Amino acid sequence: xxxxxxxxxxxxxxxxxxxxxxxxxxxxxxxxxxxxxxxxxxxxxxxxxxxxxxxxxxxxxxxxxxxxxxxxxxxxxxxxxxxxxxxxxxxxxxxxxxxxxxxxxxxxxxxxxxxxxxxxxxxxxxxxxxxxxxxxxxxxxxxxxxxxxxxxxxxxxxxxxxxxxxxxxxxxxxxxxxxxxxxxxxxxxxxxxxxxxxxxxxxxxxxxxxxxxxxxxxxxxxxxxxxxxxxxxxxxxxxxxxxxxxxxxxxxxxxxxxxxxxxxxxxxxxxxxxxxxxxxxxxxxxxxxxxxxxxxxxxxxxxxxxxxxxxxxxxxxxxxxxxxxxxxxxxxxxxxxxxxxxxxxxxxxxxxxxxxxxxxxxxxxxxxxxxxxxxxxxxxxxxxxxxxxxxxxxxxxxxxxxxxxxxxxxxxxxxxxxxxxxxxxxxxxxxxxxxxxxxxxxxxxxxxxxxxxxxxxxxxxxxxxxxxxxxxxxxxxxxxxxxxxxxxxxxxxxxxxxxxxxxxxxxxxxxxxxxxxxxxxxxxxxxxxxxxxxxxxxxxxxxxxxxxxxxxxxxxxxxxxxxxxxxxxxxxxxxxxxxxxxxxxxxxxxxxxxxxxxxxxxxxx
Length: 605
Ligand code: AMP
Hints:
CATH topology of the domain at 161-338: Nucleotidyltransferase, domain 5
Radius of gyration: 26 Å
CATH superfamily of the domain at 161-338: ATPase, nucleotide binding domain
CATH class of the domain at 161-338: Alpha Beta
Distance between the termini: 48 Å
Number of helices: 14
CATH architecture of the domain at 161-338: 2-Layer Sandwich
Bound molecules: adenosine monophosphate
């Protein structure tokens, strides 16, 4: 079917459903299996001990909740183990199972192996979550050609073929996430002016309030809490999700589940009636939150709602009449249903894939960064010492690729090193942002003055961040490339995950080559003016200089009692070596011992 070797597919890896699409003869096409376009994003282990994905997995949710995982997208970016039967997996491993199924579906549909993909993520996903998505794809044997934002993908479909100037809002309310983007399209260029969202707001939350409503009524009537029993809870959730969908067209629904519980040996049946009005009252606060996000996104874009040409609805939850009504009120016009709310994102990813492949001259995409990036710096000297803050360098909503620099001065005369701590987030307090990398620049001393250091950030379209720090006077420089700094897997873990997935799929999968490691260091020169002051290496104690080491030693302490045998001996040795490396002020040894300790703690937990 496809006209190319090594085709690139577009994948919408959704919380509830996932979709794969490709461009054929210039037209985006969703690839289905037996007519099913949506693949439920659910994985499970069936009673025969085999891996099941999609509909089969969703169907066993109620019967085997302990052997089934849904909505894993909400956990992407975290490494907390997820139980699936008698094994545990990381969120990227679970997502890899869904991606692998989509890859197989696509390979079968187009009659040739599929190894490359454009994958969409919510605009509000941070680097950690994007990296987890890349790693999931790697485990599924897919090279990620580009990660694009879901609303951007939807715009590519909405805008297809048009060259008119338009400013639109893409309001995407799915199963697990919500985001809204203000987008400008002009002369074939799509520019995301601003994006706002909530990775913890979606149709799942609406299901949950309905579950609570029905379960509370049942408890009042029968004195039994259905939420306490995992099977009853899942049956109730499935029934409420169906009821929610029916309430988009019907004014009243009946929820009936026979033999859902028992009391004193007697079976209990559930029968509940929910009206649309009751449901709307329950979900109103969630819908209000989405409208607040729309207002914020508009404010950030510098546009008013009246300057929008269209408000495009994407995601299954936009079928809810209350959502449409609130948006109509806000927009004072009819929101647009020009794109298929379930398929637009995957179709847009396919359009982008074809563009990367040089196959169609579609619109050019200008994406923005979803988070502010910067470093830790001192903006104030207090009696107690330097007060550290987050100093932004690339602000949120800056179009990509972006290159910005900021100059700082050292805190002390003749300071011989500065620590560059790279952060992502929106808060002035350092600890309320996410740490995404660290390195040290040794400075040449002797002038008796404070030194100027220029910190430059280069952020690519793929979210790869290159941070350089340069001593102005000498040109001495260090560069840190953060592409893998947020790597979810240590090399050994990834090998283990790969071979485990290979076995589970009972098929050989070709995986990506190992990267060189989290950081690549090199030397280069640059110059600029002085500004804020950087933290000093000399004047801090070992604990202050190695906060991650302190944190992991604390974690080791708290887990010590539960570790036995060889693991316990290894733990003691690693802790001792780490303390020694801190005392000797050896950052390389500290970093590698932290990694080893982290590895050990992950497995003994
Ligand atoms: P998506 O992530 O875009 O696939 O959206 C899936 C979400 O949309 C799930 O929470 C579904 O329950 C919800 N959904 C799908 N169809 C409807 C409908 N007709 N009415 C209300 N919610 C729906």
